[in-house]
Predict the structure.
Amino acid sequence: MKTKDIHSILRRPLVTEKTTGQKETSNQVVFMVRRDANKIEIRQAVEKLLSVEVKAVNTVVYRGKSKRVGKSAGQRPNWKKAIVTLAAGHDVEFFANVDDVEPAVAE
């Protein structure tokens, strides 16, 4: 059995209006993860890479949609989403505070 690199488990954070609301109300962050990653591996990756304590991990596998472009048909790839609930007092910031950024000066 091949071991997975901890850096390859988390693909990218999913930042949408819904996930931003989840972060504010339920202290949950959402990631796109490898399809073959399990909940234990996802928990360990988040705790080590982001230095936070994880309370729970829920996963959902999305099936790729069938699409047609002209006469050719294809299918988008399947992907897996992990909803990670953080322990109280822990937080993850994906973007720098907008107030700290200096405005660009046009010359």
The CA atoms of residues 52 and 90 lie 6 Å apart.
